[in-house]
Amino acid sequence: MIIISNVTYPPESTREIANRYLKAPALPDYIKKKGPYISAGQESGMHSITYYELENHRLAEGLQAIADSLAVYFGVPGYRYDIKPYFELEEGLSILGL
User: Fold this and answer.
1) Do the bridges between strand 80-86 and strand 45-53 make them parallel or antiparallel, or are there none, so unpaired?
2) Using one digit for the tens of pLDDT, what is the confidence trace for 23-35?
3) pLDDT digits over 38-68, tens only?
4) Cβ-contact 50, 65 below 8 angstroms
5) Domain spanning 2-95: which CATH class is it, in words?
6) Angle ∠(22,80,78) on CA atoms, nearest 5
7) Which of 18, 19, 40, 69 lies 20 to 30 Å from 25, alpha-carbon distance?
C-alpha cells in the first residue's frame, strides 16, 4: 500500500519549510519514501507530494509516523497538508466487500 501526503504553502514560507525539512526526524525503516516532489504556481503557491510505501499491517503506525514528520512544519504561515492511504485494486475491492 502507499500513503500520499499533499502539502501546500505560500512561496514566502519556502525558506522556513526548507530549514525545518533539514531538521525533520527520519522516518522508520519500514516506510519507503519517494519525494517530496515540488511544483509551484503563481496563484496556488508551492505544492509538494510525497509517496510512502509500507506493508498493510503497518498502516496505523505508518500514518502516525508520517503525521509526526509533517507536524514539524506546524506554525509555518500558510502551511497545510493532508495524508491519504491508497490500496491496490484487489485490496480496495475487498474493503468494499467485493
Assistant:
1) unpaired
2) 888 999 999 999 9
3) 999 888 899 999 999 999 899 999 999 999 9
4) no
5) alpha beta
6) 85
7) 40
Starting at the earlier edge strand, list the strands of the sheet with 2-9: 32-41, 45-53, 2-9, 80-86
If you search the block for the grid coordinates 497545510, which residue do you land on?
80
Query: What sign does the dihedral 46-7-3-69 (CA atoms) show?
Result: positive
Q: Over the chain, what HEC string results?
A: CEEEEEEEECHHHHHHHHHHHHHCCCCCCCCEEEEEEEEEECCCEEEEEEEEECCHHHHHHHHHHHHHHHHHHCCCCCCEEEEEEECCHHHHHHHCCC
Residue recorded with cell 514566502: 12
